[in-house]
Specification:
By secondary structure, this protein is an alpha/beta fold. 43% of the residues lie in helices and 17% in strands. The strands form two sheets. Strands 1-2-10-7-8-9 form a six-stranded mixed β-sheet, with helices on both faces. A four-stranded parallel β-sheet has the order 5-4-3-6, with helices on both faces. The chain is globular and about 55 Å long. The N and C termini lie far apart (43 Å). The model has no long low-confidence stretch (mean pLDDT 94).
Length: 312
């Protein structure tokens, strides 16, 4: 049984309706080794905060407010990327402080965005493990709400609203391609997908958390070495995502960094869509022929974010 039920995703959509955008769906012909294919793109890079992460992080914070457990000390998260930006957005929208612990080598553009959104940024930290430990200690010491980038049922339910929203925009979707890091997006989409919809997780070869978990039968640590690691840098698939993905028939395919770059360049040169490397990861699988949709299929590709320093 799924740890995130359909009614939780419906509740999340209702809860979020005044806080997030209904992002556009864009139909495009995409080149593949077998010729052009019609694809629907869910443009989550246009979401508040620049990525899909805002849905899940805000849902978790709003749920805490409903329960009376959102403290005046605010929220804290460990993330040098989109989840941190989403936490800063949540703090601003709910009028509570947001503290974000980031590794010292986090992308400057994302760190600057955190500060511009009013977050307190702790950036004298060596790596992701240390930033997580710092955020845990801060939450224990101050009482701040400890937000999680992906390993939380409310975060997963928030991500699942992408699927229900997309189906309302285009009812014929029969397959979904999306990038995978810690697993919040893939598990949310999976929990929300109707029977018969194929969910394909696309991962860089240098960060195969879902691929490794499916092979091992459990989440296992992986080495991370990819150009997309600022967004897909989780070293282990989350327990909540695994509980959903392990029983759902989710597929996993891998793409190399060069393919991600080509897909990102295609989105810019052909469509003038600015995305980050993680945002182009799912498209890379289709362009390179790593995953081939059945004839007549109507695939959805989730463009997950666009918090970049350089538009190209």
């Amino acid at each position: 049984m799924s740890v995130v039920a359909a009614d939780e995703i419906t509740d999340a959509a209702h809860r979020l309706r005044h806080f997030i955008r209904r992002t556009p769906l864009l139909g495009l012909n995409v080149p593949t080794p077998d010729g052009e294919r019609q694809v629907q793109f869910k443009l989550e890079q246009t979401q508040v905060g620049g990525s899909f992460k805002t849905r899940g992080i805000l849902n978790m914070a709003l749920r805490a407010r409903e329960r009376g457990t959102l403290p005046p000390e605010g929220v804290v998260i460990a993330s040098g990327g989109n989840a941190g930006i989403a936490a800063a957005v949540a703090g601003a929208k709910l009028d509570v402080p947001a503290t974000v612990a980031v590794p010292h080598d986090s992308p400057p553009g994302k760190v600057n965005r955190l500060r511009a959104l009013g977050a307190r940024v702790i950036d004298d930290i060596s790596d992701h493990a240390e930033s997580n430990a710092w955020a845990d200690e801060y939450a224990d010491r101050t009482g701040a709400l400890r937000l999680h980038a992906y390993d939380d049922a409310d975060v997963v339910a928030g991500a699942g609203t992408i699927m229900t929203e997309a189906l309302n925009q285009h009812s014929q979707i029969d397959s979904v391609l999306l990038a995978v890091g810690g697993g919040g997006l893939v598990s949310g989409i999976t929990a929300a997908a109707p029977p018969g919809v194929t969910v394909v997780g696309v991962e860089p070869e240098g960060a195969p958390t879902l691929h490794a978990a499916l092979a091992a039968g459990r989440p296992v640590p992986v080495e991370v070495d990819t150009i997309a690691q600022d967004s897909l840098g989780a070293r282990t698939l989350g327990d909540v995502p695994w509980a959903i993905c392990s029983t759902s028939g989710v597929q996993s395919v891998l793409v190399d960094d060069a393919a991600i770059i080509r897909a990102r360049q295609w989105l810019w040169s052909t469509c003038r869509l600015v995305v980050e490397n993680a945002g182009a990861c799912a498209l890379a699988a289709l362009i390179e022929g790593v995953w081939t949709p059945p004839e007549g299929a109507s695939p959805l590709i989730v463009i997950c974010g666009a918090n970049v320093d350089d538009p190209q």
